[in-house]
Amino acid sequence: MDESEDVPKDFIKLRSEKLSVDEVSELVVSPYCGAVSVFIGTTRNNFEGKKVIHLEYEAYTSMAESEIKKICRDVRQKWPSIKHIAVHHRLGVVPITEASVIIAVSSPHRAESLEAVMYCINILKASVPIWKKKSQSIKQQHTMKGRAEVPKLVWAHNNVWRDQPGSRKSLIA
Fold it and tell me: Which pTM was predicted?
């Protein structure tokens, strides 16, 4: 394969269907790269000591895609050897253990792809307009004993980072 046939590409997708790690990682494979680094963010069954039933994501899709493209441009400026970048984020209900986000990056050597993957997920969570609703199970306080748990729905924007250590300001600096 001529290197001109393997030009750097960004693969960005927001979708409601289940995400595939194999599909995303295969997008970034290149014969010119010795490293493919992958981050998989999954739904866990707890948050702050409370049982989580599932997560649900909503996005301002066009703006989210635009922000992810900016992240890809930033990655290429910081690590010029990066070949391909794939960022797939699930929308809608995401059950426990399933992937909410998969990020894959290829580069000639591992250091660049590992650093780029970490940068991508940190900036994505800090700046991309994707909202997460946690469906938590809580016991009703004023009901008969043995009553079923009811879900508590909590919406959170990904950029709760603004006043926390590791914010985008400190990550970019």
Answer: 0.80
